[in-house]
Design a protein that fits this description.
Layout lengths: L1 E5 L3 H15 L3 E5 L5 H9 L8 E6 L5 H6 L9 E7 L7 H9 L1 E4 L3 E2 L3 H14 L6 H10 L1 E3 L7 E3 L1 H11 L7 H7 L4 H13 L3 H11 L5 H19 L6 H8 L3 H11 L4 H19 L5 H17 L4
Parallel strand pairs: 1-4, 1-5, 2-3, 3-4
Antiparallel strand pairs: 6-8, 7-8
Helix pairs in contact: 5-6, 5-7, 9-10, 9-11, 9-15, 10-15, 11-13, 11-14, 11-15, 12-13, 14-15
Length: 318
């Protein structure tokens, strides 16, 4: 039996593997599919268990091993072996994926998106109660905001990291009183927040602060993800400036983002003219394109773009 688990939601994958372990009454053996040899793969799927009962084998990222991924459709495990293929992303055009769709159990483990804040809050409240952890609505909102990060599959999408939230709940379970200070000790502000502050600094026209912030952030955060976040925030700013006086909830729904993000940006939208908005969107789009095509180092492209944004907002010629 083969099970394909694919998607960015590692929490859902772990839940599914736990269910399979319970059904098989077996522990799981984990393997790195990217470095696995053909001999190891064939041994895993062809050998019968020496101890009776089912074997549960979890292989991570086998699709990155092109030769073995092509072999999946020709090597079916014995009945007493359950092979779990755990993938962050799969190419649905491959013959192996099409074969798995017909012959295997396929489970998409999709993450909660930034727009799913209400759903995430309800889930987190239930999970915290199950773990005997008391959280106020304000703390739940803050935890979700800090656990929002850039997708590794779609650089224009922000997701809510449930696995991170589960880890935080476990760390908070020993605390009698939970405050923002307590939370800060186990959950730092997200990259999402840090990049928003960087964009906000440029929108305030403070080029020196932009440079200092980039110097700090470039040592801590991935430039490619930061570039994607900035491009996304420029699109959100455009939605506000060109929103024709529509309310934030409506614009958020159209853009597929949570209203919280737009409310943060709204204080700057009133100071950005359509002409300056065009410049902001243009320089960030060009920087994003140059980074994606390998023509520019991410943080250098970000600094050049944001310095241009800062100069334009401050009143210089566009």
């Amino acid at each position: 039996m083969i099970v394909l688990l694919f998607g960015e939601n590692t929490f859902l994958k772990q839940q599914e593997i736990m269910r399979l372990k319970a059904d098989a009454k077996s522990t799981a053996m984990h393997y790195d599919g990217e470095t696995m040899s053909r001999e190891t793969w064939q041994q895993l799927v062809r050998e019968q268990s020496l101890f009776g009962g089912q074997q549960l084998i979890v292989i991570d990222d086998l699709s990155k091993n092109t030769l073995l991924w092509d072999d999946v459709a020709t090597d079916t495990p014995f009945n007493d072996t359950v092979v779990v293929l755990s993938e962050t992303k799969v190419d649905k055009r491959t013959k192996t994926y099409k074969w798995l769709q017909k012959k295997a159990k396929v489970v998409e483990c999709a993450p909660m998106k930034e727009r799913d804040t209400r759903q995430a809050a309800q889930w987190l409240q239930r999970y915290a109660e199950d773990q005997k952890v008391k959280l106020s609505p304000e703390l739940i909102d803050e935890m979700i905001r800090r656990a929002t990060r850039q997708s590794t599959v779609d650089d224009r999408s922000a997701i809510i990291d449930q696995e991170l939230l589960v880890s935080v709940i476990k760390q908070l379970s020993s605390s009698d009183v939970i405050s923002l200070d307590t939370l800060g000790a186990v959950l730092a502000p997200s990259n999402h927040d840090n990049i928003f502050e960087l964009f906000a600094t440029a929108l305030q026209g403070d080029g020196q602060q932009v440079h200092e912030a980039i110097t700090r952030l470039s040592a801590e955060q991935d430039g490619y993800l930061a570039m994607g976040l900035l491009a996304s925030q420029a699109q959100q700013l455009a939605g506000l400036v060109l929103g024709n006086d529509r309310d934030i909830d409506t614009i958020a729904h159209e853009l597929g983002v949570h209203p919280y993000s737009l409310r943060q940006l709204s204080r700057y939208a009133t100071t950005v003219s359509p002409e300056k908005l065009s410049h902001i969107v243009l320089v960030l789009s060009e920087a994003d394109s140059r980074v994606k095509t390998g023509k520019a180092e991410p943080w250098l492209a970000i600094e050049n773009a944001l310095q241009s944004v800062s100069a334009a907002v401050k009143g210089g010629a566009v």
